[in-house]
Amino acid sequence: MRIPQVTHWLAILLATVLSVPALGSESPQQEVERFVEQMVSRHGLERDQLHSLLARGKVRQEIIDSFEKSAERTWAWKKYRKNFLNESRITKGVKFWNKHLSLFEAASKQFHIPQHILVAIVGVETHYGNRTGKTPVLDSLITQAFHYPERARFGRKELEAFLLLGRDEGIDLAAVKAPTLVPSANPSLSPPATAATPSTSMAMAGATCGTVMPTLSVASQTTSRITAGTEERR
Question: What is the C-alpha to C-alpha distance for residues 115 and 24, in angstroms, rounded to an integer?
């Protein structure tokens, strides 16, 4: 008597799974429309405003190419480490930390991330404000979310957070730019207009470009040297 019952529930489960569109099974425009409806239902955003903003974004092949050819995919660890663990970044890290100490203290307390990790990753991702980036974040996220299947799920999650950031902070999202491989939209990750701002905007940037392990490894190796330099300067 149990077999028909099991078959019944399996049929329901199968019907449920098949009723959910698979990621990539729709056209990009259909996926955009479904995403818009989700933002409206989940967060109460205005449909027309969403359409207007997303229409300002552009699909950029160079963004996909950048991910495909990124150092995290093509460099050996020895070369990667040498590029980030050097005297220039350490010296600038000490100066940057001292200059913006109060902001690092506040960010560390709010997001529960040690200051030295924040400092080190800001160095890895922006060379302490010397590489602020030219890529529109909106373009990057739209490209990833709807035109790059490998990063589509992540891109939509970040795009959702990016839209909420714009709503909550009153930011013109189409004007926000970042390095090509650091397009994160998490409110704690994306600086409004300048990547030189020492906030937790860069705290998890390594995770954003899929490099959290090597980034944090480099950060941990620079920590003691940056900290020692900071103590010497105080």
Answer: 40
Cα–Cα distances in angstroms (integers) from residue 32 to residues 78, 156, 160, 176, 201, in the given order: 41, 10, 12, 21, 26
Confidence (pLDDT) at 86: 83
pLDDT at 136 over 70: yes
Candidates 89, 87, 97, 84; CA nearest to 231 is: 97
Residues whose CB falls within 8 Å of the CB of residue 89, separated by 6 or more in sequence, listed in order: 123, 124, 127, 128, 222
Q: In whole angstroms, how far apart are CA 107 and each of 62, 92, 101, 186? A: 33, 19, 10, 15
Whether residue 222 contacts residue 136, with contact meaning beta carbons closer than 8 Å, is answered with no
Catalytic residues: 125
Place of tokens 């019952």: 5
**For residue 131, what pLDDT is reported?**
78
Q: Note the pLDDT of residue 133.
A: 77
CATH number of 24-233: 2.60.40.10, 1.10.8.350, 3.40.50.1360, 1.10.150.910?
1.10.8.350
Q: Per-residue pLDDT for 170 more than 60?
A: yes
